[in-house]
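Table 4 source record.
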Amino acid sequence: MKNIYHLSVDDNEAIFYHRKTFRELDRISFSILDNIFGKQELEHYLLTIRSFLYRMIEVNDSFYIIIKNSIINTAFPLLRHQFETFVQLKYIFFDKSKIKYKCDMYQYFQWRRQLKRMKCDENNEKKYLFYKPFKEIFGKYNNSKFDNWYSHIYEANISFKKLCNDIGEKERYDALYCGLSLESHGYAIMESNTKLINEKYYLKNFRTFDRHHTLVCINLDLMIEIFRIFTENYKLPKKLNDYTIDFMNRAKKYIENYYNISETFSIFYDYVI
């Protein structure tokens, strides 16, 4: 049984502006990407930052499709991935003196995983072994005993929670991560797609407007911080820089107009928003 899906006039109007918001996020993000990383030849460490930003753009594009079709419950496992990407990218910039080192470490751990998968493919293995940055990085760090790149930098196995605490993301972690993890691992399915009425459980509409604003606000909050990082660390063309800052200010007002951001996080599991 597939429940009928109805949208009110207000719902349709909100979805129109949500889609417009994600298109604007897309324009700004790609403009930053092209301006900073659009050269034919980049220093190899910049490839790490470029990939992180590009992944966040990919996820924003997925959210646009989700918003357009109101398949909101599928968005929150993806939002956890967006948050984890956001935290790692912010960590790269957290100590500017170590940006290149952190980017090298991320690439090293990626290559180490890839080589394990390539042992039976000699041609693929040689492709990496003859890549100059790969040889340089492996020559320095190939004895790492850690499981992930940021633990190597800490020289101790640390949790994602500690990483968040150390870069000033404790509030976002505490507010989001547990709920997003429940969604990702399938522990909150009944909470998200059923409702209890008069001692009976009923399925919610297959496509629902519930939590549209929650998704938009949380993702906007992350992207505002990412845009702040890039506008502060790179010299963007004045027109793009001004446009980005203007968008950030408008996005903050949007969040404040619907609900205080801390309240948004606290009602993450209040599905009637």
